[in-house]
Design a protein that fits this description.
Blueprint (H helix, E strand, L loop, with lengths): L3 H10 L11 H7 L2 E9 L2 E2 L4 E6 L4 E6 L5 E5 L6 E8 L3 E3 L4 E4 L5 E2 L2 E5 L9 H7 L4 H7 L8 H5 L5 H11 L26 H18 L24 E7 L7 E6 L5 E5 L4 E6 L4 E6 L14 E3 L5 E4 L5 E6 L4 E6 L11 E5 L3 H4 L2 E5 L4 E6 L4 E5 L9 E6 L5 E5 L4 E5 L6 E5 L7 E6 L4 E6 L4 E6 L4 E6 L9 E4 L5 E4 L5 E6 L4 E6 L9 E4 L6 E6 L4 E7 L2
Parallel strand pairs: 1-9, 1-10
Antiparallel strand pairs: 1-2, 1-5, 3-4, 3-6, 4-11, 6-8, 7-10, 11-38, 12-13, 13-14, 14-15, 16-17, 17-18, 18-19, 20-21, 21-22, 22-23, 24-25, 25-26, 26-27, 28-29, 29-30, 30-31, 32-33, 33-34, 34-35, 36-37, 37-38
């Protein structure tokens, strides 16, 4: 078995080494010769929970560690090869004082003690959750602007000087963009969704006006400074500091790695949320190989949302406005695509999710259409699609579909608090309701015990539905305003989650209810979450959807 220790060496040197010895990462880190160390201090004294990141000149890989309770940080020699490195820190409320470079030489420990000073621009350091906590206003007003984070940060809004009247025009323009747009790649919405039913123009304009009037109270339209105090979350401590992050840059800033999944050889696969691109990252070297995804509708917006493996670890893609799905054969490096039939394939169609994981059971692949809020099932051999309509129009947002071991389809309903089941043989639909009203189950996964884990995106919780007992359990996020997007379990029984607001990854022990919150090295728009169970302990992976990078998180305890 590849040991975690040797995997760390391989990540830097590009070598693949086999070992029969399992080495715990925390023990390995403590024993490894140290390439770079130092202490982080400020007017507080030694600072625990400061993220220290280093990136070698000319490299695409950034490595990050976190200071301990004495303010000390350490980079093992297996992590850093000789060369000049740029240094940066993440400690809300503080900036790095002085030059941020250090030279690492072979067979010698470099020391760089870091002094932090009060931040010159605190607002530039706040996460979306910290902005929401700082804003005045009602819960309803704040909820109305949460969807803005699909495309950009809340900071972008509050630095504007637009009046309410001007903001109405801005919001009206923003409503013409699909969720896969972001500032570096704008695309136009071809048609509104029809699943939610007819939309009243008067009600829509009234909602825009309310939203604009609220935004004008929290931006800089009436004052050169914000009229409210900026609130920050505490730095990591304890177990949350026992972690190593590796961040891999992608080839272009327009890459949006919405979903990242890792195969049994250690390769990380991603697709670009706004481009027809499937990518493969070799974490040992940082090399990225990209494959152009075929166009099915040349006039429609481009981009991929859901990426999942089939039994043979071939990636399948939800092609959104292209109106179909794709399978990539890893051996031949070729695509096969399936388009919805013409009568189902209007401009509103948006195939976000695809779930081929149990297709070997009965030959069928589950998918979902965000344009109609319906669930579909494809027979790849015949190309025939079955359509399931759990609700009559106006429908709630059916967001994800996940198969169990028998390839029954379980769907998650963001627009309410429902988890549904479609019987694979009879087509019968059964609805189950989470204990929390309006919880908004969004995305998730089925574990080997038939338990469906998911993020309750509106309930600020992680949910679990035991498909065998038909019972739910829920765990409230430890930091209010986390709004979990997704959840996945690992081989040790821990559950991982994250969202678009806190820049923190949650690790839950369901047996004790205890959480560890890992702060990510920089702002990270978290969507799909994934764990690699080949390592001990399991390694967590996520795409920085607006940062054109992929992040690997290795807990050391």
């Amino acid at each position: 078995m590849r040991s975690t220790f040797l995997l760390l060496i391989a990540a830097v040197c590009g070598a693949v080494v086999l070992s029969q010895t399992r080495v715990h990462p925390l023990h390995a880190q403590a024993r490894d010769p140290v390439a770079l160390t130092g202490q982080v201090t400020s007017t507080e004294g030694p600072m625990e929970g400061v993220l220290v990141s280093v990136k070698k000149t000319g490299s695409t890989i950034t490595t990050t560690v976190v200071t301990d309770e004495q303010g000390r940080y350490r980079f093992a020699r297996t992590r850093l090869e000789p060369g000049q490195y740029a240094l940066r820190v993440r400690a809300v409320g503080y900036d790095l004082e002085g030059a941020g470079t250090v030279d690492v030489v072979d067979h010698k420990t470099a020391t760089a003690d870091l002094k932090l000073q009060k931040a010159r621009d605190l607002g530039s350091q706040l996460s979306n959750a910290e902005w929401l906590a700082s804003f005045p206003g009602t819960d309803a007003q704040k909820a109305s602007i949460k969807p803005c984070t699909h495309c950009h940060t809340l900071e972008r809004i509050v630095r504007t000087r637009y009046t309410a009247d001007q903001l109405v025009s801005v919001i009206e323009r923003m409503a013409t963009y699909p969720q896969l747009s972001f500032p570096l790649k704008i695309q136009k919405l071809p048609a509104p969704r029809i699943g939610g039913g007819p939309d009243s123009p008067d009600q829509r304009r009234a909602a825009w006006r309310r939203q604009a009037e609220y935004l004008a109270t929290i931006n800089l339209s009436t004052s050169p400074q914000w009229s409210y105090a900026l609130k920050t979350l505490p730095r990591p401590k304890g177990k949350a500091t026992q972690v190593i992050y590796t961040e891999y840059d992608l080839p272009q800033r327009t890459r949006q790695p919405h979903d990242v999944i890792v195969d049994s050889t250690g390769m990380a696969w991603y697709a670009s949320f706004g481009e027809q691109i499937l990518g493969k990252l070799d974490p040992r070297t940082g090399k990225v190989t990209e494959y152009p995804v075929p166009l099915l509708k040349p006039e429609a917006p481009t981009g991929i949302l859901g990426v999942r493996f089939d039994k043979d670890e071939n990636p399948w893609l939800g092609m959104q406005f292209q109106g179909g799905i794709a399978k990539f054969d890893r051996k031949t490096e070729t695509f096969q695509t399936w388009s919805l039939p013409r009568e189902l394939n209007g401009p509103h169609v948006q195939i976000n999710q695809v779930s081929p994981g149990r297709a070997h059971v009965d030959g069928k692949v589950w998918l979902q259409d965000a344009g109609t809020y319906t669930v579909l099932r494809l027979d790849p051999g015949s190309g025939k699609f079955d359509v399931f309509e759990p609700y009559a129009i106006p429908r709630p947002n059916v967001y994800d579909v996940i198969p169990d071991a028998q390839n029954n389809g379980y769907f998650l309903v963001l627009g309410t608090n429902d988890v549904g089941r479609i019987d694979a043989k009879s087509g019968k639909i059964t609805i189950f309701k989470t204990p929390t009203p309006g919880s908004g189950p969004r995305r998730g996964m089925m574990d080997s015990q038939g338990r469906l884990w998911f993020g309750e995106n509106n309930g600020d919780r992680i949910g679990m539905f035991d498909t065998r007992t038909e019972r739910f359990q829920e765990w409230a996020a430890p930091t209010p305003g986390t709004w979990p997007y997704d959840a996945t379990s690992d081989k040790d029984g821990k559950v991982w989650s994250g969202g678009e607001f806190t820049d923190r990854i949650l690790r839950l022990d369901p047996r004790t209810g205890q959480f560890v919150e890992y702060l990510l090295p920089r702002p990270t728009n978290v969507r799909r979450v994934f764990v690699d169970n080949r390592t001990t302990p399991p390694t967590f992976w996520v795409g920085n959807n607006h940062g054109a990078s992929i992040v690997k998180l290795e807990p050391l305890e």
